[in-house]
Amino acid sequence: MIDHATVNYIQKYILKKGEELETLGIDQTSSPFIDVKIVKRTERTYRVAGLLTLSPYKKETVKIDDSLKDLNFTPRKKVKLDDHAQRTLRWLEQGWIMKEIRFEKDEKTIKTMHYRMGYRLYQYQQECIQQKKDAIDREFHEWKNTTKLIQLNYDKIELFSYQRKRGFNSLIEVINKVLDLDFYEIEESYLFPEKWSLQKRLKFLHFVVAFLQLCLQKTNFDWKEIGASYFKEIGGSKKFDSNKQEFITHLEEWTKCPAALLGLSSLGNITPFYFSGQLIGNYSSYQFGPVHALTDLSISADDYSTKATTLWLVENRGILTRMAAEGDFIKETNSLVMCVDGHLRTSHKHCIHQLLKNSPIQQTMIWTDYDSDGFQIAKELYTVISPHRSLKLKWITHDHRIMEQWEMYEKYMTAFLKDHKLEQEQILGDVESWKRWINH
């Protein structure tokens, strides 16, 4: 007979709607295999839809073949195997796989024939998944213990510069939120990029603690020291290399300042924020005219404001330079045009927050490419701006229409991207169009 667990597995993953197993009268002879009919039954009809060949579940321990692992079976995956191959018969006899035959409506002609994951293989995979979860749980608790030990040295931050102290405190604030989580909450937490796996999130947490330790120990340090000081083993300095740029970028999301201000040296990267219009900071002042650029370092160290009432956030430099070249358009419309240059950086977000907090901006014009990347940038810009409730938001469509609700623009772009893709420069417009959008 078939055990209850195997029956439940087959019902969940193998059988189709309205099907059941015909378990009565199973002929279990000296053969190691049994054939089980898949039937569809109604009040008036009875039809054999298929046949499963499997081996009754045995509890003895059997080592799984690497070649079976390589087939990457899943509960719903169908695989073609050689019926006469020795390994196929062995896997079938040991319960790793089962053979599924589907019949035509005449109940005799074979429609399809393939192999499916057996209950033993399913159980093996579930045990492996649980072992990984248990290992991650232990690793996360070890990370928590390490982090709590580092907290004993937080008094050293009193010696930091104002900028470094501010970035450090911002990082600690996020770390404390992570410390309040259980490991299974890490996978869904908004504190990490949505597409990161659980393993990658945990690796990033190790990176953060390694970075934190060096911040407390040294005024300046280079990239290689982060992994080397944390892992203390040969090759430790390279542990984070494969994730270098994205880890630094997300670290700066948590610290709200460039990593260089916290001591990380020798990166050689300066992130610009191109703009045209009037802008004032504590250390610098810009007037209407040419295209200017702020850096991530200056944005972190300064606090900017503008007298502009219309803020343009565009994706490409071509739009920025075109608007800046149009005589007095920016001055006449009291606009500030800022270009994220194809990617919304942490420093860009910080600068936008500064401007919206410190300035009399009444409306923001969001203008990005009409492709998947441009759509993503538009979404990220909306996320940055949406907390400012009193601000009027406008999105520009490819046919020069204005949309004032994100939900409308999202629906429009989703439909548009099914058949089209355009860059901003292809629908540049002119001064009259730009003024019309402002006054819409």
Automatic annotation (TrEMBL):
<dbReference type="Pfam" id="PF23947">
    <property type="entry name" value="DUF7281"/>
</dbReference>
<feature type="domain" description="DUF7281">
    <location>
        <begin position="295"/>
        <end position="410"/>
    </location>
</feature>
<dbReference type="InterPro" id="IPR055705">
    <property type="entry name" value="DUF7281"/>
</dbReference>
<protein>
    <submittedName>
        <fullName>Uncharacterized protein DUF2399</fullName>
    </submittedName>
</protein>
